[in-house]
Amino acid sequence: GVQKSIVLTGFTMAITSIIILLTIGNHAFAIDYTNEKCGISINYPKDWKAEDVDYKSEGIRSIVDFSPDSDNQVSIDLWDISDYGEKTIEYVSEIFRPLEEDTESGVIQDDILEVGGFPAQKLAYFEGIPGKYEFQEDKNHIMEINILAYNRLYQIKLEAENQDKFDKYAPLVEEIANSIKISKPNFEGINC
Predict the structure, then answer these.
(1) Half-sphere exposure of 30 (CA within 13 A, CB side)
(2) Are 111 and 124 in contact (CB under 8 A)?
(3) Which residues pair with 109 in a beta bridge?
(4) How far is CA 90 from the centre of its chain?
(5) Sign of CA dihedral 24, 178, 94, 72
(6) H runs (alpha helix) in the chain
(7) How far is the first Cα of the chain from the last one, in angstroms, to the nearest whole number?
(8) In b/e form, how buried is each residue of 127-159, taking b as 16+ CB within 10 angstroms?
(9) Is 44 within 8 Å of 176 (Cβ atoms)?
(10) Which pLDDT does position 140 carry in this prediction?
(11) What separation in angstroms does the CA of 156 have from each of 21, 123, 129?
(12) Are 108 and 122 in contact (CB under 8 A)?
């Protein structure tokens, strides 16, 4: 009797813990953004604002902007890489590195990984106007998760006004990126 009670109590505690963890995990990312024309679906925090963007220029199509607050932004863009010499993540990752001679910038992280089942680059760096900022912490901090899928580049980009905001939002942007689902496009280039 006592043994059954202990086992039952342990089982109940384990199930309750799992339910709480699932509820907390789903609660924060309860909102699903889907753009069927561009073939993406992604989850984002429920307290962030999402705004469809229909900007298109040569080689880039903006899809959506997420705003955690008024000064920081996460955008999702689709890049046409049909003219690139190679369609590998290693080649693409070299193209997207910041040009250090144009700004006071520095690469924090540059890793090749997999996101949503596709090869990807996680690039984090800071940049500023020469002479304007005294400390790295005050410069704009940027993280790009560049996902190579179906001969296109899907870019999830965080632009944070300083290092504190970057440190706060970067883990959330990684969670957002890891929730992405990309379906095979039924359009040419970036014309979704």
Answers:
(1) 7
(2) no
(3) 124
(4) 19
(5) negative
(6) 2-28, 89-95, 163-178
(7) 64
(8) bbeeeebeeeeebbbbbbbbbbbeebbbbbbbb
(9) yes
(10) 85
(11) 26, 10, 23
(12) no
Half-sphere exposure of 124 (CA within 13 A, CB side): 14
Three-class SS state of 96: coil
Average pLDDT of span 43-47: 92
pLDDT at 21: 45
Strand partners, 153: 79, 148
The structure tokens listed for 31 are: 């909102």
Q: What are the residues facing 107 on neighbouring strands?
A: 125
Single out the residue of 191, 99, 101, 81 nearest to residue 146, CA to CA: 81
* Cα-based distances in Å from 118 to 58, 74, 135: 24, 20, 36
d(CA 15, CA 19): 6
Tokens of 64: 């959506």
Write out the two tokens for 34.
């889907």
Can you give the pTM of this predicted structure? 0.78
The answer on pLDDT for 103 being more than 80 is: no
